[in-house]
DNA sequence: TTAGTTGCAAATCGTTTGCATCAAG
DNA sequence: CTTGATGCAAACGATTTGCAACTAA
């Protein structure tokens, strides 16, 4: 948590932006989340703490957290964006069950290596990536 | 092209759906495309041939092509969906330049193997995947 | 006091849908 | 004829934005 707060503080002062109590409430709720969360979902959680915070502010702050480097954004097959933070959450990829919607996270260094090889071949400098495996999870395939 | 048309014909008769001249126009324009295309872009191309075709029909047919197995859909970081066909286009992944927007396609069997290993570990049955590497292409990094 | 932050509602963007009409089989 | 295909405009869901009021520094 300390590292994330620091990251945000740095970003804010660098860009001449401000802290605010609502921004803090949103950050706290966001960092409390373990997995992915949509703006809508985060809005609900935040509203348990402070019902005066509107959805627009959630979007504005998620964008800010993203720009500050403490949130990642992904879009799966459906429409809405999912956000997740980096606190206790280094990079990983996703297995997504198309039947029940379950999302499993995994890490695999082999894949990262192979990616570097590929990038080298195309003289490409990788800054980030996403790998998503779609299919059926064990529960759903045994049904 | 023959294979794709056949695929569509099979799908149509299986589902008791019909051919139509507009559907053909859309299919032809779609198969002519080499890379990814958005619904909007395809609409423009189709309209050069037949300006009476509306965007809703483009969406309806892209969905149909997708269900019939002759189109793939992906969403990159931004909102809109991109479609691509399987004619001369077997599965591949993408390198995406964040500066100029260039999209390079690549194939890598090693990665596919590793994916299967990961899926096995989680008793997951993979039906599809997406791998996107974001970064800077050679041109943009030399500027 | 100056500029960033927020709520609200309206606007926007990509996509889907209801309905009346048209056309394939 | 029967039912799928289509155009149009309205509806939609997610996200963004303009504006006036608010608040951090």
Short description:
With 143 residues, chain A is α+β, with helices and mostly antiparallel strands.
What's the structural blueprint in terms of helices and strands?
2 copies of one chain form a homodimer.
Chain A: H1 2-14, H2 21-32, H3 39-49, H4 55-68, E1 71-75, E2 81-85, E3 93-97, E4 103-106, H5 109-121, E5 125-136, H6 138-142
Helix pairs in contact in A: 2-3, 3-4
Chain B binds a DNA duplex (25 and 25 nucleotides) through helix 2 and helix 4.
Rg from alpha-carbon coordinates of chain A: 17 Å
CATH architecture type of the largest domain in chain A? Orthogonal Bundle
Main beta sheet strand tally, sense and closure of chain A: 3 strands, mixed
Low-confidence regions of chain A: none
Shape of chain A: globular
Number of helices of chain A: 6
CATH class descriptor of the largest domain in chain A: Mainly Alpha
Oligomer: homodimer
How is the largest sheet of chain A built, in terms of strand order? 4-3-5
CATH superfamily of the largest domain in chain A: Winged helix-like DNA-binding domain superfamily/Winged helix DNA-binding domain
Q: How many separate structural domains of chain A?
A: 2
Mean pLDDT of chain A: 86
What is the CATH third-level topology name of the largest domain in chain A?
Arc Repressor Mutant, subunit A
Biggest interface, chains and residues, is: A-B, 34 and 34 residues
Written as H for each helix and E for each strand, in order along the chain, the element string of chain A is: HHHHEEEEHEH
By secondary-structure content and strand pairing, the structural class of chain A works out as alpha+beta
Distance between the termini of chain A: 41 Å
Into which percent range does the helicity of residues of chain A fall? 40-55%
Overall strand count of chain A: 5
The share of residues in extended strands of chain A comes to 15-25%
């Amino acid at each position: 948590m300390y590292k994330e707060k620091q990251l945000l503080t740095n970003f804010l002062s660098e860009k001449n932006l401000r802290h605010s109590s609502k921004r803090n409430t949103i950050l706290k709720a966001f960092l409390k989340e373990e997995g992915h969360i949509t703006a809508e979902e985060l809005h609900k959680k935040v509203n348990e703490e402070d019902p005066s915070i509107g959805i627009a502010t959630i979007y504005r702050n998620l964008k800010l957290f993203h720009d500050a480097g403490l949130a990642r954004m992904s879009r799966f097959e459906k429409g809405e964006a999912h956000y997740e933070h980096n606190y206790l959450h280094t990079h990983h990829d996703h297995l997504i069950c198309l039947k029940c919607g379950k999302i499993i996270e995994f890490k695999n260094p082999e894949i990262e290596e192979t990616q570097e090889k590929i990038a080298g071949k195309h003289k490409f400098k990788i800054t980030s990536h996403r790998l998503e495996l779609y299919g059926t999870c064990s529960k759903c395939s045994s049904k």
